[in-house]
Amino acid sequence: MDCLFCKIAAGEIPARMLYQDEQVVAFADINPQAPTHILVLPRKHIQSPAHLEEGDEALLGHLLSVSVAVAKKEGLVRGFRTVINSGEEGGQTVDHLHVHVLGGRPMHWPPG
Ligand code: AMP
Ligand code: ZN
Description:
alpha+beta, 21% helix, 5 strands
């Protein structure tokens, strides 16, 4: 499968890796939108939240737990934002489900 994030998770394309386990990986976003901008994703190829299947619940829970753990590890004690873009109008540009963890500056609401 020709998927950028599958290749990064497999170590075939380099990234600044911040966390890895059997199920998920976390690495620095190549085009950061905040002083800290991390992507956390499952190794399993899931296209988007709209493509989640029965049985993915535990993986999703782990994905969010790791996202929070990585935010803490990166020192985001004043807060952070987690974002999952889904589909074209949701702003998704890489079709492999991922959590953005953004921090190090105040976030605004509503998002653009
Ligand atoms: P989204 O628009 O929600 O699909 O997010 C995709 C994110 O992947 C963007 O923030 C990009 O900057 C980031 N990105 C694209 N290519 C790479 C790469 N090779 N390494 C790290 N991050 C990337
Ligand atoms: Zn993939």
